[in-house]
Here is the input.
Amino acid sequence: YDDKSIVIRVDDPPSCFNGTLHGIADYPIATTVLLKIENESGIDHFVNYNAKKGINMGTQDGANLVTVVSRPAGIRDSYAESELVAKLGVGENYTLPGFVVMVEDVDLNDGVARVIVLPDALMGNGTCDDYGDDTSQKI
Here is the structure.
């Protein structure tokens, strides 16, 4: 998903994400389908919207929810076991080392979720909007 993925890092200044995640079935028209969160814990986290439509219509676990998966940091395409650590609906959030993932909205008709990923450094000091709509970096 190279062209539809974004990396969010703990940097100076920290990067963040405030935008729309499309489900994988909408890949041809999507802007972003995957967020990769890198922190200093040695564990990377991946955030996507598990839209139950199209090629993903048969999904049963986490349907129409934002999912967070963790795996050991390493070479991008290297093998490593992953773990589903969160399934989030509207108004829910998940805290991981250095970041919080928040789901603002899910549109079942369009198959998209509005997601914010803020690093701890921005919590209480502003939102991702203060730093631009997308201050993260493409993979």
The chain is about 0% helix and 40% strand. Confidence is low (pLDDT under 50) at residues 130-139.
